Structures are given as C-alpha cells and as structure tokens.
C-alpha cells in the first residue's frame, strides 16, 4: 500500500506538471508577440518574458523558505494562486492594451513557474533514494502533455475574444492553474518527513564542493541558453513572415522535445552517469545553434527548436541529478532553492538581451551567442569526470 501511495504522489506531480507547464508554454509562445503589439518600442518586445524570468528568480528563495517552514503543499498552493492571478491579469492587460500591466502579470507568472520547477525535487521526496532519478524524470515527463496542451490552447483560443487576440488564452490558462491545485492536494511526502530530522552543514561548506559548482554551472548554461533561444524564436519567425500557427506548432514540438526524453533520461543517468548525459545535452545545444544559423525556413526553425529541447532535457536533468548528490536530506531545500535561484537569475540576462539581438541584429546572432558558454560548461564537466575517474583508480 505504501509503495502504491508513493507512486500515486509522483503521478499527481506529473499531472500537475502537465497542467501548470501549459501556462509557461503559453507565455513563451505568445509573450514576445503580445509584447511586440503592446510595447512602445520594438526592442522591448521580449520584455514580458524577461519579467517572467525575473519573477522566477525573485520567487525561488522565498519558495524554498516557504517549503522549509510550512511544507511543500503550502508552497504549491501559493504558486497555483499566482498562476490563476497571472491568467486573469494578463487577459485584462490585453483587453485594455496595457503593456505595463501585462509585464506585471508576467512577474506573477514567473513566480508560478518557479514553484512548478520545484516539482522535480519534490518527486524525489516521494520515493526511496534508489528511485529518485526515475521519479524526477517521470515528473518532467508530464511536460510532454504541457507541450501539446499549451500551444494548442493558444491556437484554439487566440481569436475567441475578438479583437483582443490571446485574451481568452490567458483566461483558459488561469483555469488550468486552478485544476493543477486540485491535483496537487493528494501528494504525500512521506520520505521527506522521515529524513528531515537529521542535521545539515553550513551553506558555506556545502558550496565549496566542486561537483555542486559544476552542477549549477551546467544548469545555468542549459536553461539560460534554451531560454535565450526560445524567447526570441516566435518573434524571429513572425519577423520572417512565418504564420503564427506554424510558430505555435514549432513551440509545441520544442516543449515536447524538452520533456519527452524524460521517460528514459533517468535510466540513462543511472546507466551512463551524470557527466555523459550532461555532455550529450550540451552537444545537442551546440547543434541546435548551428542549425538555427544555417537558414530561416520553417524547417530550420523547427529542427533547431527540437534539438534545443532535447539538449535542455539532458543538460538540465543531468545537472539536477548531480545536485541531488551534493546535499543531505536536511540540506535539500536550501541547496535546491539556491541552485534554482542562480539559474533563474542568469536567465534574466539572457531574456533581456535576446529580444534586442533578434530585433536589432539577427536570429543567427542569437544562435551564435549560444556556443561560448556551452563550450565552457562542457570543459568543466570533462574535468570533473576525469577527476572522478582518477579518484576511482587511486582508491
């Protein structure tokens, strides 16, 4: 009975990931386009998505503190409330044509996304240690449904409330956030309760671990570069004259590619180790950038976005699994929230710059900027792997 209950908790988290992930997908599919319509200047088109990422960064540490003091269910409830508020406020902003109000809505949307991303670590508290990688990847696999649901939601509802394009989309996103809250009510964290009584090291000691530093670095590069490209992709396609329905479909395939590998990424990590999986992800990010630089057709955009999604999955999930090896049960919320804070803070920089690059320079320039940080992260992983191999030989 206990195993069945834990499995049910992981499945609930995966279902909630699907519903909640649709909100983020809607933002990425429509945020830059709506921004381009409402913004006073073209270079501010991606500012709403930048504010969305800023909300993620600002909310990460408070989310961790809330989970630590009041429990993860309370943090989840606050997140879902932010999700509902985001949809309602964004719809109002579109109706009255307020760029500032739309950006404010995106701030709350980012806070919701920060809570949703904690689902992957929460899943690890629902199972025994040997099943944590599998639970983590199972929850992220719920994003496959979000990848289909979000863009299709945008396509199906964007003209329902004419002439306020996408207003109905954000009202539907608010409903999805409310449904996610209902699904999360049955999640139980039995293993977290059993382990939380043990002590933890001071944060300054934890941060001295080189594997943790490299895990955070790879998480930053994987997520920042993915967000950097995805933020500007819909706008770039719009500038190139590609229909919005096709742009939405490209984002749909991208998000599916982000989460579909999660069905087996956990097993790949267990078999080949985190270093090899992270390196594979970084290589795919490079390939995505090169593909984007090679042409401006629909197929070029779509293939680049698919490779970008798979690369993110391997790089980010591998980095997340590496983080789990760097802390004890009592240290988990501090280390995990700090890890996510650093990642999202770095993403803010990428989001702010990608919009101006694609409007003032080119899509190829955006893709070119992906390569240097990915190479740096890859070198760090290779050095870590070589060091561990040497320790095994000497030990």
TrEMBL record:
GO terms for molecular function: transmembrane transporter activity. The keyword DNA damage does not apply. Residues 211-395 form the Major facilitator superfamily (MFS) profile domain. The chain crosses the membrane at residues 45-63, 75-93, 99-123, 135-154, 166-184, 211-231, 251-270, 277-296, 302-326, 338-357, 363-384. It comes from the Bacteria. Residues 1-20 form the signal peptide. Pfam families: MFS_1 (PF07690). Gene3D superfamilies: MFS general substrate transporter like domains (1.20.1250.20). Keywords: Membrane, Signal, Transmembrane, Transmembrane helix. InterPro entries: MFS (IPR011701), MFS_dom (IPR020846), MFS_trans_sf (IPR036259). PANTHER family: MAJOR FACILITATOR SUPERFAMILY PROTEIN (PTHR23534:SF1), MFS PERMEASE (PTHR23534). This is MFS transporter. It comes from Cupriavidus campinensis.
